[in-house]
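# nightly structure sweep
# worker-07 picked up a monomer target from the shared queue
# config: single-sequence mode, recycle default, output format = structure tokens
# input follows
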Amino acid sequence: MGLSTHVLDTMHGCPAAGMGVALFTTQGGQAQLVKRFVLNADGRNPDGPLYDNHSLKAGTYRLVFDVKTYFSGRGVALPEPAFLDQVSLDFGVADASSHYHVPLLVSPWAYSTYRGS
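# output follows
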């Protein structure tokens, strides 16, 4: 399956539908935008995997999740500045033939991630 992501809003107990996400490739401290997308009703990229098995390459990547805008849009009163604005996850792909799933569990005050299946 390549590379995928899924975001769950732990404050409201639901997928983070409508959250903006950006995917970058990274190398030597430089980041190059691959794509921006808005999560669907299931908290996933509406176009499916971010990379399929054939286009995913070994290397380093970054996913940036627009947490502040998402929770503000849900009517959550956030302090200024918000505790979490954007959550940036840098990760590596060592075996491009494997599936890399990068879930994010997030609230306005905390987040957790792991390599999923």
